[in-house]
Each structure stands twice: as structure tokens, then as C-alpha cells.
Design goal:
There is one protein chain. The chain contains 7 helices and no strands. With about 190 residues, it is an all-alpha fold. It folds into 2 domains: about 10-95, RNA polymerase sigma factor, region 2, helix turn helix motif (Rna Polymerase Sigma Factor, Chain: A); about 130-185, Arc Repressor Mutant, subunit A (Orthogonal Bundle), CATH 1.10.10. It is rod-shaped, with a radius of gyration of 37 Å.
Length: about 190
């Protein structure tokens, strides 16, 4: 038991204003549990409540020389509530920043995918332009314009089997060339 245990709150505040660490320790011991209860009730988190109480006592120590307190328990409770509100605002701001960051990352990712998609289509078109005419036409109609193979065969006046053969040949050639192109790009 400290020598200050029997002091009144007003006496402790007066001693605290004179830089008494022992008076501060007594206030800490006397009110820590009560302030923790306030913080925990409002924050619903043990760690957050402990941090708020610590911040309250740090602030009390920093302001010790200019204190004008009529009721120490009321003053400390108000300081604790203030620290809770600051912690909640800080947490809210952090969540908003995280949400904004995730949204920005998502937009960048979408933008990157659009660029990759356009680049890939450009490469495929360039490679398909190097194919023999019938292979190129079958490939472009079927794969780039999504036409059914039987319609493409009819438009080009070739059998469906021939159209399928041209498509197979085109796909093999483009896949082979794509592998080389992708290796150079990435």
C-alpha cells in the first residue's frame, strides 16, 4: 500500500500538478479498472479498451501541470470517452482507407486485364493475318466473330470437314506462334 493511498482525489491532483509520480501511480491504481470498464463497454474489445485507458493516463500525465479538476472520476471518465471516440474515428478512417485501397486495386486490376485482353487480341489478329487465306478466314469467323462453323463453311463454299481442318491448322499455328510471342513479351 502506497503512502498516497489515504489521500483524497483533490490531494492527489494537487500532488500530480507538482510532478509527483507517486501520486500519478496512485491515481492509476485507483481508477484503471473503472476506466477500463468504460472503454470495454464502448469498444467491446479488451485490447482496444486497454489502449484507450493507457492513452487516457498518458494524456493525464502530459496535462498534469495545467489541470483544473473539480471531480477526478468525472474528469477521467470524460477523458476516456474522448479517447474512445478518437479510437473509433481512427478505426473508421483506417477502414475507409483500406476500402478505398482495395477498390483502387480492383480498378487497376480490371484496367490491367483490359490491357492484357486487348494486347492478346491484337497479337492473335496479327498472327491470324499471317495464315493462308482460307485458314485465316475460317479462324477469324469462328474464333473472333463467333460464327458457327457450318455457316462459315457455307459462306466460303467449302465442306464443313474442310472448314474444321482449316480451323485446326490455324489453331495449331497460332498456338505455336502465341507461345513464342508470349515468351518474348512476358
Amino acid at each position: 500500500m502506497s503512502a498516497y493511498h489515504s489521500c483524497t482525489d483533490q490531494e492527489l491532483v494537487a500532488l500530480l500538478k507538482q510532478d509527483s509520480r507517486a501520486a500519478f501511480s496512485e491515481i492509476y491504481e485507483r481508477y484503471w479498472d473503472k476506466l477500463y470498464y468504460i472503454g470495454h463497454r464502448m469498444l467491446k474489445s479488451q485490447d482496444a479498451a486497454e489502449e484507450v485507458v493507457q492513452d487516457t493516463f498518458v494524456l493525464l500525465w502530459k496535462k498534469r501541470l495545467s489541470l483544473e479538476i473539480s471531480s477526478l472520476p468525472v474528469y477521467l471518465a470524460a477523458m476516456t470517452r474522448y479517447e474512445v471516440y478518437r479510437a473509433l474515428a481512427k478505426d473508421k478512417k483506417q477502414r475507409e482507407n483500406e476500402t478505398a485501397y482495395q477498390q483502387q486495386q480492383s480498378e487497376f486490376s480490371s484496367f490491367d486485364k483490359d490491357i492484357e485482353h486487348k494486347l492478346l487480341l491484337e497479337i492473335i489478329e496479327q498472327l491470324s493475318n499471317q495464315l493462308p487465306e482460307k485458314c485465316r478466314l475460317v479462324f477469324q469467323y469462328v474464333k473472333l466473330q463467333d460464327k458457327p462453323i457450318h455457316e462459315v463453311a457455307r459462306e466460303l463454299n467449302i465442306s464443313q470437314k474442310t472448314a474444321e481442318a482449316h480451323l485446326t491448322k490455324a489453331l495449331k499455328k497460332i498456338r505455336g506462334d502465341m507461345g513464342n510471342a508470349m515468351h518474348l513479351l512476358f
